[in-house]
Design brief:
2 domains; 37% helix; six-stranded mixed sheet; four-stranded antiparallel sheet; alpha/beta; globular
Length: 257
Amino acid sequence: MEKHNIQRDEAHRDIHIRGLFKSFGDNHVLRGVDLDVYKGENVVVLGRSGTGKSVLIKIISGLLKPDAGTVNVLGQDVDKLDNFSLRELRLKIGFSFQNSALYDSMTVRENLEFPLVRNKKNLKRRQVVEAVRTVLEGVGLLQTIDQMPSELSGGQKKRIGIARTLILQPEIMLYDEPTAGLDPITCIEINNLINTVQERYHTSSIIITHDLTCAKATGDRVAMLLDGQFLRQGSFEEVFSTPDERIESFYNYNFIQ
């Protein structure tokens, strides 16, 4: 059973992908992928490392071009946009990188101010200060505002990375392995934060992971990527209630109870 009542119709569709193919030489990563993400929905894309999960979100954000297929984000065909329009679209897409991607030479405050000052040049200083405090409070880390990234734990860096993404108030969030390398308690905190972001900012999200606990905790819908295609889509229970040995082995490999 999903966590939210999502309206799944064309009017509420933020991401629409059909027939998506992407290869790197002889490595056929995506082989005809179809996916829709609706307003306010968390969709988890599950799969082992190297199955094309990260390639998918790089294509959605225009960082990679597909070989074939259509990718429509917020009503725009991504591969047909000129550079200016693509930059404008990316301001509406928050990208939470696996390594948090913080600037080591900047304080937490400066890391958060940087994208805001660069992309919204008309903001007054008071508005920038207020925005930084608001997103830090949102991720529960206001006390770190003057710390350097080297002073933060892995989980704190992840939260600050998400805060820096949220400061531009994106409509879509793309999370790349949000719980990778974190201890179980911190994983729970990050899962809760992903759900808080969904509730507070009404974002539509794709969460790329191979962590079944994360998938179960955050996903309104789960899509299982295997051999370049989505093998099953639905609730967590629907995806894993199958005798398909490939899906069973993935489940068992992750040792989830």
